[in-house]
Amino acid sequence: MKNKPVSRGLLLALLPLLLLTGCWDSVELNRRAIVSGVAIDRGPTEAEKYRLSFQVIVAEEISGEKSRGIAPVALYTGTGRTMFEALADASRQTARFLSLGHVRVLVVSEELAREGIKDIMDVLERESDTRLTSLIFIAKGQPAHELMSTMTVFSKIPANDLVEKLDTTSKQFGYNFRMEVDDVIRGIQLRGGGPVINGVFTSGEREQADTNDNLKSIRPRTILRVSGLAAFKDDKMQGWLDGDAALGTVLLHNKIKEFPVVIKDKEGGYLSFNVYQSQVTLNTEASDPEHPVIIVKIRQQAAVKESANPLDLTSPEVLEGLSEQLTEETIKQIKTAIASAREFKSDYLGFGQVLQRKNPRGWKQVKDHWEDIFATCEVQFVADAVIRHTDMRSNSFQINK
Predict the structure, then answer these.
(1) What angle do CA 76, 79, 81 make, to 5 degrees?
(2) What positions does the domain Spore germination GerAC-like C-terminal occupy (predicted)?
(3) Strand 105-109, strand 97-99: pairing
(4) Tens digit of pLDDT for each residue in 91-150?
């Protein structure tokens, strides 16, 4: 059987495709300016509502080849009525195309966060060059661009230093945890609630924070610090969570890996514990959705880290008593977190989600006035803490007199 000849019309249709091979909008790497971090501040006027500062990596200083001994990053700032206009304004200052595909950190000023971040999230989700896995922070009490212009000791790129600090504190002794752009977008859509976002600020002197002089002394003059959680209702920041309120919030979200707890014994001394395993589950008795009962179940395992007292830590009765104190401390932290959420009138703790899963029909009846129910609903606790070991020794040594 003979093959049918290809029609002339089909050949003419395929010919342009051969001429269009390759990426029509490609930009060579040496024409790109890699952005590692972005700071978003509130401008002074509506015409300059957004002030965007882009932390651009100077590749020659990072690689060591053709190094000129200058700063490893440069900061370019643009302003505009919208974020896209501010980006366009900043691009006029650079000799290369601003590439947003490698942004690791986004820092939003507290002033802008209190006005609302919905429009910012819309841009970040809509723009194809940005990543929804970028970490987001709220600048605590200072402009966001100052955080992007602080030289750091452990990383040449300040944005990378901030990422590493968050990873460290989330794995050891801290209540801060990874909060990505996608997490914030989902938190904003939480009915009656909102996201919680890590706070960051600089301590020390600002005069030389953006120069290498900040790193030449044993004590850096300015230090980037991760601290506090910004609590939101919808897309507007309501206030800061610190101490027990922040720790209890993260416990309810099951985002904490390990953390220290200090309790006071009956003789007035202090004991330190490392809670290395904590599991909190939320349930509800929601047969009456107007009066739900939230049930918080807590399971923890801990180790004694410090015991400067004569307690007999080999005694099961003593350990049981300490476990009960540990449980009471955890319940106190979670109660503080619930009180803060009620004060902010925002269910960022996810109680409404628990009710929605348990009783979908009942949730439809109360979702429009869930804020009122959340403020007064009963919360019950079922908690158990176990002290598994006392590390390298049992009882503390005592001085013989």
Answers:
(1) 155
(2) 227-390
(3) unpaired
(4) 888 877 888 888 999 999 999 999 999 999 999 988 878 889 999 999 999 999 999 888
d(Cα 155, Cα 223) in Å, to the nearest integer?
12
Q: Which spans in 254-394 are helix H?
A: 316-344, 351-358, 360-366, 370-376
277 near 301, Cβ under 8 Å? yes
Rounded to whole angstroms, the Cα distance separating 46 from 266 reads 60
Residue 176: is it exposed, middle or buried by C-beta count within 10 angstroms (0-12/13-18/19+)? buried
Burial class (CB in 10 A: 0-12, 13-18, 19+), 59: middle
Contact between 134 and 192 (Cβ < 8 Å): no
Question: Pairing relation of β-strands 293-307 and 270-285?
Answer: antiparallel
User: Could you tell me the residue ranges of all domains in the chain?
Assistant: 28-241, 244-401
CATH of domain 244-401: 3.30.300.210
Is residue 339 scored above 80 in pLDDT? yes
41: which strand partners?
51
Instruction: Give phi and psi for 65, each to the nearest 5.
Output: -85, 135
Whose tokens are 């200052």? That residue is 93
| Cα–Cα distance for residue pair 130/274, rounded to 1 Å | 38
How does pLDDT run across 187-232, given as a tens digit for each residue? 999 888 999 999 999 988 777 777 777 777 788 888 889 989 999 9
Instruction: State which amino acid sits at residue 196.
Output: V
Amino acid in the structure at residue 267 = E
Token representation of residue 259: 């953390």
What Å distances lie between residue 53 and 36, 89, 201, 375, 388, CA to CA? 11, 11, 16, 40, 49
* Claim: this prediction has a pTM higher than 0.70: yes
What are the distances in angstroms from CA 148 to CA 15, 160, 219? 50, 11, 20
The structure tokens listed for 117 are 């971040």
